[in-house]
Q: What sequence folds into this?
């Protein structure tokens, strides 16, 4: 499972011209689910993301986390994070989970974040979405649950 975290001052997702989700400070997360991901991958990413110290303190140092600040999340499903571009000019998506599995883990990710007390906004799984991201810094960090194995 991959989560592309973007530290933002504003994020919004629109579907068919209507605002579906909107946050001020926090993370916009593009979340990709791989075909062999499980609940353990969700737990790893939620734990890592929630305590990642990438918000600056009074001295301008990366010392504060999303939880420290009480900031929000905007989570967008993003199967293209598993695009394979090794061969040819058209990406392949065989590593991405099938929708029936991906939606369950996407929703579980959102539920686990809410259980931490984080305000979570989201897009709509499988919808054509227009995402506005005011990246702060810019700070963009890729988390991959495969890293839990490489420790």
A:
């Amino acid at each position: 499972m991959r989560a592309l975290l973007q530290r933002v001052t504003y994020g919004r997702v629109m579907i068919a011209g209507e605002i579906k989700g909107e946050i001020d400070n926090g993370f916009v997360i593009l979340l990709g689910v791989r075909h062999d991901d499980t609940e353990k991958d969700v737990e790893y990413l939620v734990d890592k993301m929630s305590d990642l110290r990438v918000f600056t303190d009074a001295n301008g140092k990366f010392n504060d986390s999303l939880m420290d600040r009480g900031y929000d999340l905007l989570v967008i499903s993003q199967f293209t994070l598993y695009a394979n571009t090794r061969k040819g000019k058209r990406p392949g998506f065989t590593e991405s989970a099938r929708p029936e599995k991906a939606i369950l883990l996407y929703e579980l990710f959102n539920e686990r974040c809410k259980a931490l007390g984080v305000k979570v906004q989201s897009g709509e799984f499988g919808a054509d979405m227009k995402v506005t991201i005011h990246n702060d810094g810019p700070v963009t960090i890729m988390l991959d649950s495969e890293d839990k194995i490489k420790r």
About this structure: The two ends are 16 Å apart (CA to CA).
